[in-house]
Amino acid sequence: MITSSANQQIKRILQLNKKAKTRYEQRVFVVEGMKMCMEAPRERVEAMYVSESFLKEEDRRKKVQSYSYEVLTDSLFRTVSDTQTPQGILCLVKMPEYCLEDLLGNTPGCRNQKQEEGRRNPHLLILESIQDPGNLGTMIRTAEGAGATGILMDKTSADIFHPKTIRATMGALYRMPFYIASDLPAAVLTLKEQGISMYAAHLAGALSYHQPDYRQPVGFLIGNEGNGLSPEITGLADTLIRIPMEGKVESLNAAVAAALLMYEARRQRGL
Amino acid sequence: MITSSANQQIKRILQLNKKAKTRYEQRVFVVEGMKMCMEAPRERVEAMYVSESFLKEEDRRKKVQSYSYEVLTDSLFRTVSDTQTPQGILCLVKMPEYCLEDLLGNTPGCRNQKQEEGRRNPHLLILESIQDPGNLGTMIRTAEGAGATGILMDKTSADIFHPKTIRATMGALYRMPFYIASDLPAAVLTLKEQGISMYAAHLAGALSYHQPDYRQPVGFLIGNEGNGLSPEITGLADTLIRIPMEGKVESLNAAVAAALLMYEARRQRGL
Predict the structure, then answer these.
(1) What is the CATH number of domain B100-269?
(2) A172 at the B interface (CB within 8 A)?
(3) Is B6 left (phi over 0), alpha (psi -120 to 50) or beta?
(4) Which one, A42, A144, B78, B271, has least CB within 10 Å?
(5) Which tens digit of pLDDT belongs to each residue from B198-214?
(6) Phi, psi (5° rounding) for residue A117?
(7) For residue A168, which residues of chain B lie inside 8 Å, CB to CB?
(8) Looking at the domain that runs over A8-94, which CATH code has it been given?
């Protein structure tokens, strides 16, 4: 049992929770709670940590018995936990490695069902400078629900492996292919060359978001919560679309806007 | 200029930001930032506070010149601010007073345009035990955008005057009629007696959310982020509807679900 906060493993978890830099250096991230730990692809689980009280309940003990795990005192678990009421279980999980082509499903031996769908008819969510980790996680969760086939985002967006992002994805992080581009405009251009039509939600959009035909390969461009899309990315859109708003509302929350667009594509595709 | 944190007004702002109880005792809440202060109905602004640097820019000074305000040192303003990068302006605003009938627009001399619309064809968002203030604020913002006519919520939901809720409404708080019921089931029953059909998003729903006709008076029931709607409130729904989900997603974020339902009503109503 680990009892001291001076333990190297404890120090490592704390660093991984706190610093994106450490996560990317080690290519590992921290997930917390029963659902996120049990849904993690087994071959990517590098380590598991549970609290003393966690093990006291038999059905929980059974669920983790096939893993090798370390036990932490309850108080020590609370110090490494990112949540206010820890469930007493966390895992270190190896980062998945996707490339841009994975969003198109072009790679030989496609890794999962999402990519198979993407090869047939891509439906992509493309994110520029999303600030809030919770918003980002909600978008990934909604994307899976709406049947989107992949997510492209830039390096200035919130970290996809931030504890708050991970929590908000509710497991979708394990299943949605994503690619973090260092040059977002170049990546969008590459996708356009592959025949994907780009739609940007924009106040200047002439068409309502219900009007275009999304049954063909589509990408939805969603920008920063405060400032929207940059002129450069807006300029890459094939069509500007408008989400109608009543009253004095000037814009919608970015995750809400993304949800309306992706679910409209889903409706048209008759999934 | 106020320079000391021992000043009674400073102590009052801190208490109002921190404690829902103080807000309801004094029937006053705190709003921060230029947009939220300028959009506050003038007759309800009880006090305005600005920071020293705020006044240094001429266009800002002009915007507040018709108000009476107190000036705070920059460091003192930071201590009363609820945000990490304060804009240097906050207001104390009197709470609006709505009753349940206001959601129906039945009261003589309806107060605003939303209530006039509600009298013609109510479109209500009904919230049970929403936990996250940011989620609640996002739902109020989306409700205005979707042309909903009012919000009914219970006392166990996050406080509508919590600083994080207020911020997420982006001003919609000033314009959406809302009623906080101490007995939510009774309030829902009253609305049903007025001819409003209740729809609950539920995994057991037989109809997809696109299928019912929302052009008649409707209420959408949305439950707690983790546990969904209680059996009691679910039992009051006329129809259970389902938001289809792909992959292994078990549910959507509550604000995302609310947005999809309200925007579907908006689409059908052809606003």
Answers:
(1) 3.40.1280.10
(2) yes
(3) alpha
(4) A42
(5) 999 988 898 999 999 99
(6) -65, -40
(7) 253
(8) 3.30.1330.30
